[in-house]
Structure prediction request, 520 residues.
Amino acid sequence: MIQTDVLVIGGGPSGLCAAQLLIESGFKVILVDRSPVLGGQLVKQTHKFFGSKEQHAKTRGFDIANLLIDPLLNHPDLEIWTGATVLGLYPDLVATINQNEQYHKIQAQAIVVASGASEKFLAFENNDLPGVYGAGAVQTLMNQYGVRPADKIVMVGSGNIGLIVSYQCLQAGIQVQAIVEAAPQIGGYKVHASKLARLGVPIYTQKTVKKAIGKDKVEACEIVSLDDQFKEIPGTSEVIETDGICISVGLSPSYQLLDMIDAKLGYVPELGGTIPLIDDNYMTSVNHVFACGDGVGIEEASAAMMEGYLTGLAVARHLNQPHPENEQLMKQYTNALNTLREGPFGYKTNVGIEKMKELIRRA
Amino acid sequence: MLNKIGVANKDLVLSRFFDEKTLVKPKAILECYEEIPCNPCSTSCPFDAIHIGENINKKPELDVDKCVGCGICITSCPGLAITVVSIKGEKAIFKIPYEMNPKPVKGDIVSGVNRHGEVICDVEVVRVDGHQRHDRTVILDVAVPLIYLHDFITVRV
Prediction:
């Protein structure tokens, strides 16, 4: 059994930021990630990020990943395990891990679960045909491995991910046939939508994909109009020729590891669905086990970074060895996080957090 | 229209433009119509001409007297929502952000398009600025017939 002070599960923006402040606080940390590289979803984000200086705004996502990773490399108090999948979490603060077909056990004094999220999928006819992708897969193929996933694509969903990936498809020389959105309005930032509109991409609200058409792979996509109750309006079927259908209809927090140790969960749609209930210090209902980032509520990477820093600080306090600049940093990151959530796009998150607090009070 | 198809209507566009007399000198046109948490335009402006304030969700406002049209904000905006416009005779000179390949070269005549993505005119590329400080976004200076001042938004190469 390997012993460490803190185990951080997940090397995306929140896990990296938590690890950074924990080593600054003097702890021995092991950071594990199932991917071959650290950075989580940042590594495939080729666009410039929103936010403020604190979240590295106007820097491209993959460059932000390097900004967060570089100070951690070769640090004597940090072990980085990549290609390491956490298989199980146990109440005695043990995680079991598979790395290169080797089975490891790590026991820590505290664990940070920064496991991120997984994509939601849509049920429609032939959704298993080759050519139907999740937006994350399209980004991985295009931006990480330089593989063009299709010649043409129909994007389903107009949240920020759907809009950004559509733009990146255009940059990769893929024709974006249409973006369809079931809701009456575009979900993501309008500046993203405007970038696409001016490049000739039609955005259709109140429409969705009904079926993928093709024998061995996607050859076309049938879309239909929806009424205000999201019901299909008969006689509105259109067929769009395409060899790719990209699904971008939201994310679900990955709470499953925390479920294994019976951390209290709750269903809060505003935060993405089932989430672990966490207190003001990002601790779950299981003592010494913390969670942050998209794993506790779907937001932008900018918010995940701020949560990661705050969680790192909270864990250090919990282990009675606060970060030397605890008070000042807590104030700084709390303010930054609150500011990110202050506008209309943060409204949903704030409602979700209130609902989560209510669930904790009732539990 | 903006919320449904991603195209700002004329009134919105005009709310961010300046009269032709003001545009004799280059000025930034901030087509950021929505409260989103973002402020690099403001913090990157060396002339303190773009104001957002403490709450970074507020929309940016241009102090037109302070703006010299340097264009630093163009590639600082993650939303590619800023152009710089000046009027020279019968042409409007637009500085626009461009992130597609292939890049045009100086002297090329390319298609000018409107916010709907429709080709509206030919425009001449007068400068291509791919300096590394723009972080892989290129600034194109293009000469657009003045009648398309409020319609032109980007080019198709």
Notes: Chain A touches chain B at residues 47-53, 57-60, 63, 170-171, 173, 184-186, 189-203, 205, 302, 339-346 (CB under 8 Å). The CA atoms of residues 265 and 276 of chain A lie 4 Å apart. DSSP finds nine helices and 19 strands in chain A. The domain at 121-247 of chain A is CATH 3.50.50.60 (FAD/NAD(P)-binding domain).
